[in-house]
Amino acid sequence: MTLLIHKANRVDQDVLKELFKAGKVTPVIDRRYPLGETAEAIRYLGEGRAKGKIVIRMDA
Asked: Rounded to two decimals, what is the model's pTM?
């Protein structure tokens, strides 16, 4: 697991926004879990095997 610390500034945020809008940067989602399986999602994340973001869904 890697920790990324970034001190945000307006110029960087604007550049990132444009990259996202242009489709040049996309988030990698490893797995999605419903809210009721949050504990399982945290366990999975803690194992260090995630290759992207873990999403907790709050379905209506």
From this structure: 0.60
